[in-house]
Design goal:
Blueprint lengths: L1 E5 L6 H14 L4 E5 L4 E5 L4 H10 L6
Antiparallel strand pairs: 1-3, 2-3
Helix pairs in contact: 1-2
Amino acid sequence: MAMQLKVPSIVCDGCADTITKAITELDSDAKVNVNVETKEVSTETSASESAVREAITAKGHTVE
């Protein structure tokens, strides 16, 4: 499932790496793109949106 999420707590490439890792821990085949400038995460994954949101939040980030 493709999804776009707004993550206003993204400030750097380290945040992007943390979020990417959180999503790929749920689904190792997930395609993840984190745009630090727009603070958007787009992903193509078999995980549910709620699971992805929880994984990102568990790493200390805010999802709108």
